[in-house]
Amino acid sequence: MAGDERNFGPSAAWQPTPPGAGGQDAPPPAPPSPPAPPAPPRRRGPNWLVIGLVIFLLVSFVGGMLLVGVAFMGMMSGTDGEMFGGFGDKVGVITISGVITTAGEEFAFGGSVPGARQYMAQIRAAAKDESIKAVVIRINSPGGGPAASQEIHGEIIKLADEKPVVVSMGEVAASGGYYVAVAGDKIYANPATLTGSIGVIMQTVQYQDMLDKIGVEMGAITTGPFKDTGSPVRPMREDERAMLDGMLNSIYEQFVRDVAAGRDMDEKDVRKVADGRVLTGEQALEAGLVDELGNYYDAIASAAEMAGIEGEPSVKHFSSSGGLRGLLGSLAEMQRQQAVYQLLRDFRLDGVSEMLQATPLQTN
Q: Domain limits at 204?
């Protein structure tokens, strides 16, 4: 067993001595390990807020360019295919529609109902525009306030002193609508246009009997006997009625006088039809209240001829609402017209066409 170098246990005495033990021929210490490389940055997901903002800005830019394009096209062409603006001599078109009032109305999201002041501004703009050689006044109105009608009438007379003015009547041009029309140099009406209605009206209401039945008594303290004339809570006195008759007759005489001057007629001939009656275009032609029967395009052609414009004229429409509000208003009006058109096509709704056609007459 002696000389056997096998290891029979964990005792160190039996372990062979490794080379270089005791500090002789020991290898140099190993260099320290290099530091571990830094961990790669954590990958972050896409910034949806920034992406959304960029998309929003792009969409806004494209939408804005589209609006500018639509507005530019609107400036270059009217809704009925006419040239709007352009170069050279043009015929201006001013449309007077609805009830004529002194003050107009504007809506929050574009569009407006013009009043006398807006119409007068359009007339003055047409007078100052050197490219406008003649003007067509398109009227589709059942009338309105006498003073408002007189304001527009007076501005048209001033315009007619500088440029030819042709009036084109649409569905209705009665009462104050006709008052405005007689200021033009020439009047066109459709055969079925409703016009005339030369006269003045004042309406009153009485509900004193109703108040008596429910036990309510109302009164007024005034500084004069005519201060509460027309009160609905008491009967009208004879002196009050006479006073109102005098006021209405004064306005009526002004109406007759202006019609006679505008139509170059004797006042006695005007009075023959100035009893409030409504006339068709054909009847108005026979009575001398209009010059010719024709539509809107006939009026355009006549205005161009009177101004010496050769060929088909460019047409410039004047509007009381411009800019983005005007554009939004035009878009809203297009949507309204489309909705009416769909109603007219709906076979399930009876009488819609007749109802819509009768609407202007109900405002008279």
A: 198-262
What tens digit of pLDDT does each residue of 224-238 get?
Answer: 999 989 888 888 999
Together in a domain, 121 and 186: yes
Do 208 and 145 share a domain, yes or no? no
- What is the spatial distance between Cα 316 and Cα 251, in angstroms, rounded to a whole number? 35
Please provide the distance, in angstroms rounded to a whole number, between the alpha carbons at the two ends of the chain: 142
Residue 90's DSSP bridge partners are 132, 314
- Verify that 105 and 254 share a domain, yes or no: no
Concatenated DSSP letters for 59-107?
A: HHHHHHHHHHHHHHHHHHB-TTS-BBS-SS-EEEEEEEES-B-SS-EE-
- Domain membership of residue 22 (yes or no) is no
Question: Active site includes 227?
Answer: yes
Q: What whole-number distance in Å separates Cα of residue 181 and Cα of residue 320? A: 19
Catalytic: which of 141, 149, 168, 175? Answer: 175
- Known active-site residue 77: no
Residue linked to tokens 């108040």: 211
* Residue 292 pLDDT exceeds 90: yes
Q: Active site residue: 60, 227, 250, 272, which one?
A: 227
- Are residues 111 and 250 part of one domain? no
